[in-house]
Design goal:
alpha+beta, 3-stranded antiparallel β-sheet, 20% strand, Acetone carboxylase
Length: 80
């Protein structure tokens, strides 16, 4: 049986959103851009322990960071 993209993506563990980083996700940074998103909308970046601060600082400097929480599971998560 040939596996398609959906089957292959289900096997990939959630990874850090930092460019070039393939470490496992430990944190989720919830953010939105108030100029284009409604106040309740949250987008998600994942971060490893090494990139939590740099990704958070990038979002916070732009006024986008809303919340940082531990990443527990990818069940139902939408990462953008």
């Amino acid at each position: 049986m040939v596996e398609g993209p959906a089957e292959n993506s289900a096997q990939i563990a959630p990874q850090c959103s930092a460019k070039g980083c393939r470490a496992g996700a430990e944190w989720q940074l919830l953010w939105n851009n108030p100029k284009i998103h409604t106040p309740e909308r949250r987008k998600t970046w994942l971060a490893c322990g090494d990139h939590r601060t740099t990704l958070g600082s990038f979002l916070d400097a732009r006024g986008f960071l809303r919340e940082v929480t531990p990443f527990a599971s990818s069940d139902g998560a939408i990462v953008s």
